[in-house]
Amino acid sequence: MRSSTSSSKKYGSVKRFIKTGCLFVLSWLVLLLGVDRLIAASFPTESTFKYADMYRPGATYPAIILGSSTLAFGLNPSALNNGPAPYYNFAFASGLPEFTLVLYRCFREQHSRPATVLLGADRYIFRAGMGRRIEQDMAYLPPMIGLKIALGPHVSLRDSLWNSLAILREKRAVEAWVTGQPRRFHVDLTRYNRGFAPLKTAAFFPAEKVALPHNPYREEAFRQLVLEIQQDGARVVFVQAPNHQPEARTLPNDDERIQAIAKEFNSPFLNYNGARRSALNDDKSAFADTDHLNERGAEIFSAMLSRDLAQLGLNAPTTAKR
């Protein structure tokens, strides 16, 4: 009898311990998710708005902009008034070819084929170096598309799960807020419009350029991206936004490789650091740093590009293709 009573007490103690432990873990999970949602709401980025636009139900995008930060912050689609259909800017900071290729495939999962694509072709686009990875943006993707990518090749499932939490994904923004230090890219989200949000100019950051080696994988991803866009029936226009970096002009760049690819795919290459260089390149007040235009510079460049597209007969189409 005593043995039975003793066993019941032990069982009851274990049961209470497990119950308390589960409640403790559940409470911490609820608190963590609550803090995570608070951080996500308190520290929105341009990516938050871009992906919301990209996956808006029923939206159509017959003319889009793809590329990296030079076009993300330097090209205002509102200025591209070349046709009845508006452009949308789906270029992302550090959006190098391997990222943009996956992004375009994600876009095609949701939307009809675009009819015109302005594709960023930066001077050092095929150089080795860190670029954005799709794992960083898993929290913004629709669940089924995100799961498909996370389980696919060349994608880290751990990083996909890690970046689904705002408390980890936005740690730099939180650190900047706590310490009061300015972030590298300070974007004015109050001016967000169709994928574009201008950089605020707080200080002029000098470029520390070094000659990086050629990255053949990055070049191959760019070729594949152009091929898939053209196979969808879209017109592709390569665009290189103006830079303010006279000290870097002697470094090896990828302009000749870009020009060769443009010729191979019969696509125009609008190079605003080469044949289309203008006084804007030398106007320091138009740049947030040596590589990125500020709001004033973006307005000037966007109007310039709009005129050039019109002269080339590359007006935005009326509708997307099916």
Short description:
The chain is of the alpha/beta class and 322 residues long. It has helices at residues 2-42, 46-54, 69-72, 97-110, 143-150, 157-162, 166-169, 171-179, 216-231, 255-264, 295-311; strands at residues 63-66, 87-89, 116-120, 235-240, 269-271.
* Number of helices, where a helix is a run of at least 4 consecutive DSSP H or I residues: 11
Within CATH, the superfamily of the largest domain carries the name: SGNH hydrolase
Proportion of helical residues? 40-55%
Structural class by sheet pairing and helices = alpha/beta
In the sheet with the most strands, the strands line up as 2-1-3-4-5
Cα radius of gyration in angstroms: 24 Å
Q: Quote the CATH topology of the largest domain.
A: Rossmann fold
Question: How many extended strands?
Answer: 5
Q: So, CATH architecture of the largest domain?
A: 3-Layer(aba) Sandwich
Which percent range describes the beta-strand content?
5-15%
Per CATH, the class of the largest domain reads: Alpha Beta
The averaged pLDDT comes out at: 79
Poorly predicted segments: 317-322
* Count of discrete domains: 2
Task: Note the gap between the termini.
Answer: 79 Å
- Backbone shape: elongated
How do the helices and strands follow one another from N- to C-terminus? HHEHEHEHHHHHEHEH
